[in-house]
Amino acid sequence: MKLQKDTKGSESAVSSGEGPHGRWYGDACGAAFAMELLGERWSLLIVREMMLGARRFSELRQALPNLSAKVLTERLETLQANGIVARSFRKPPISAQVYGLTDWGRALEPVLQELGRWAVRSPMHDHTLPLTPVALMLSMRTMIVPARASGLELWIAFDIGEQHFAGRLREGDLAIHPIGEGMTSPDLRFTAPAASDFLPVFYGKRSAAEAGGRLKIDGDPAMVQRFIDLFALPPKCEG
């Protein structure tokens, strides 16, 4: 693993056997320590892609195509050394090595949610850039307005390209997990070639037809509309 240099040119504390806290900033602040744990390029996005379940190395590479195999290997090693990621093996018939978040790593979801809410308020945020299916699912968990979901309980299927997710809406919370095959008999089903096809409908509040017809929707129209209306982006910041 290529060693990261700190501002004094010394080797990273990860390689020297010391703890990572203080290796960059020499600051006792918890936020400074968080940046030392997750501040290397790509680290937080790798964590994001494992937030809904363990992933194979090849799946992480496919989700983040601009990330080289070498850098992914280095980041996974560091995240494992810091107790955020653990490596395990799926049982037959899959029999594959996978990387997943530890309990402590999964506790980062609220952090990702608050970062997301904060960042999309910027006028510089570009929603036209590529979006992974996992990022979309986490966005929906983030941008739901619980008060609007009072008394609503649903099973929702999300089919995005070759990836499938099952959603369970209950008591204002949207739980989502990946599934191998398409979900059978959900209350609502949303199908699209890419995650970005959801955005103009769920956040832009355009009809599927107005958005180009790439998002296919199955279910009672009134319930579909009520579900879509559960989601809202925060207002843009001023000045």
From TrEMBL:
Family annotation (InterPro entries): HTH_HxlR, SCP2_sterol-bd_dom, SCP2_sterol-bd_dom_sf, WH-like_DNA-bd_sf, WH_DNA-bd_sf
Region of interest called Disordered, as start-end residue ranges on this chain: 1-21
Pfam assignment, any one: HxlR
Keywords: DNA-binding, Transcription, Transcription regulation
Example GO molecular function: DNA binding
Keyword Ion transport: no
Residue ranges constituting the HTH hxlR-type domain according to the UniProt record: 29-127
Name assigned to this protein: Transcriptional regulator, HxlR family
Source organism: Novosphingobium mathurense
